[in-house]
## 1
Amino acid sequence: MHILISAQTYPSPKNQLSAFVAVLAEEMVRQGEDVTVLAPQSLTTCWRHKIPLCPQKYKVKMETPEGIREMTILRPLCITLGQGRFNKLSIRIDRFIVNRTAKRLKTRPDIIYSHFWKAANNIIDFAVENGIPSFVATGEDEITIDQFLSPQRISLLKDNMKGVICVSTKNQTESIAHHLTELPKTIVLPNAVNPKEFYHIGQKAAREQLGYSQDDFIVAYCGRFNTRKGCRRVSDAITLLNDPQIKSIFIGIASGGIHEEPACEGILFKGSLNHHEIVTYLNAADVFVLPTQAEGCSNAIIEAMACGLPIVSSDLPFNYDILNDSNAILVDPMNVRQIADAISEIKRNSELRQSKSTGSLEAAQKLSIENRVSRILEFIKKQIQTNL
């Protein structure tokens, strides 16, 4: 199949946000599909955050069981006007740019796979006009696209979407509640990890590589430095514990929402990393902490699980498909005292720490990107056959 992936963003060497879109696209290629990615790049966002522009069209080569294959990446330029009163105009601009680019494709796609509902809205006109089966993966922390669309536009998406891949039961429930789909068209498949990129190295080896002490207790955080993700709440919890043995790693950038910076003592690393570098830093840690307020299904948590880390995260529905007592301590994400107590319990109780580490590794084995993409492709073929 020739699959056209419509995405809101796509990672570049200077901007690793949305790396999971590339992971999924590349795995589709490895499983024998022809893939083209269409993801606009915002001139205003690149200018504001000093991110270099990508070429508007380029190829990515990768090794597959059949040899070297290529994937085409299309990055047309657009202008975004923020999330305020001009958001509706931004949506219309995106839609125009995406449809114009899609119409210039030399070969007609067999399938359109949209990453999130906004990307589905961008491409649905092209899909309907050309009779191309359309699917969407919904993994938004909060589904808001219906707030900016007319009832007719919502009906267009609902009536023409052959299937909806939901990263969590929470996203499935939201998509149905917002009248974007119906239960028979959906499947719940949590996000996944590439085991060749995120795996258990062993703490001792990772710390030797990074030059960290073997005696410290290290807390790892990976996510944007903002209020929603809880960067400062992790920092405040560490400060509250006032334990000089506790050190920390904060992987991320200031992007989206209210900016925050960690301010606790003992920070070993703070800043962004290339996606392939993160595995060493996670393996050097004792616990992964992400008290996020809203998610679809956190890729960062799954990557930490694949590295064998016990998890401290939010006692909220978006986590319930991947976290439980075997691998995590779930807390109120806004309660710094609870976050601190969970960190302290993992530090104090070595048996609990080892047990939850084992639980994370076992859970992560079931969340491989190979298995997820295989199930997505099976679902797509089944839905197409059902609708013939």
## 2
Amino acid sequence: MDNKRIERFHSSTLIRSPHGFSTRLGGVSEGIFSSLNLGMNRGDDVALVTENWRIFLDDTGIGYKPFVCGKQVHGNNVHIATMEDARPAFGPGELIEADGYVTNVVDLPLAIFTADCVPVLMEDPLAGVVGAIHCGWRSTVADIMKSAVDAFISLGSSSENIRLAIGPAIRKCCFEVGEEVIEAVVNLIGEGHEDLYNLKDNGKYMLDLSEVVKTRFIQLGLGQDNMEIVGECTLCHPDLYYSHRFGGPTRGSLASAICLK
């Protein structure tokens, strides 16, 4: 794989299915959207974003085709996708309200969007099931991880066979949250994980949301050796990733996609 392709996306060594976590490099969008903007509701030119999707899906080996995505509402709904849910970039087709997708349908790409939140791609190569999950802090404390594992199991998977990759997201170095978020995290994963958050002098906390997600998946029966964190902190590297905390609403979006072959 050449350097140009590597810049456009990150991939996991654990997942066999074609997949990728996008960066903001190697696309055709301009200005504040420069350059591989995959967000379809940011105000970018439709033709440019469509071309970015072609670049991204072709580079990952998924191939440019209709894919499953939807309206992310920071909840814990994980939709079991069928070919009827597939739509090209910008439609036509009704958007699903969900923060995750799981499928056992071959050649059906699943995609979620992030710009600081934690993206998770999942695969059970034995059962033939894949998933893409958007873990913002609200969907995380609402236990979208359990919804995802339950969806896998409903399609014949076993938790110990699931492989998982966590992509670029805001890391502990930059993710400042209030006490209410920490309380919700403790309610989710229990006591004894104080290493995942640090109290600051201003009364706020620095939270490692990626490790919270990983910890919860371990509690749900996934093996630690079947998990990998790839990519860097989105806020530390706004030149490489779109970051909501860096750019606010006037920015592009990253995407994470996977497809069962």
## 3
Amino acid sequence: MLTDALADPRSSVRLRAVMAAGTTADPADLDVLLERCAVEPDLQVREALTWSLVRLPADLVVPRLVSELARPEPQARSQAVHTLSKMHDRSVYSEVADRLGDTDPSVRRTAWRAAAVLAPDDERPALARRLARELGDGDRDRRLALSRALASLGEDAARPALAEAAARRGETVHEHVADTERLLDDPDAASALAVERARREVALGRSKRASG
């Protein structure tokens, strides 16, 4: 039984159960799969949950995912946002964009990527400006995730938003703008940017220790 298998402490057992559910794609499994999304600790199993949900009829899954966005568990909201982005239904863009202001940082970060995927063409410039307000904050992983979301919106939307951000004061904002512009110029530059950001953080840490 799917419910029992998903309660198994072994992630390998849970993964096999979710993959089997996705293979059969039975709408009767929808409730069980959604409930597991809120509590599943293993990333690979969560990805399989998304795959299994995407294989179910969209007219059943999409409304349920939207309702999950109001759940109190941050993981349930984050997983719902992520799965909606895989459904490629742009009609739910406004609901996903609402999560850009979520109280949980992990949900907001997931919403960056999902909103960039689902944004209609006429909403992309406004989304880019909204995302650009986050430039310069957080660690290197957060910054790279934001840069990727902005770059995925394309030149026409991202460049003006980056130019506006660059006009603001702050070295960290300017560095983040430059990193994002590099991604726009070369989508394969993400790995190099991550390494450079790590080196800058290490150097900054050494500088602070030396001055302190």
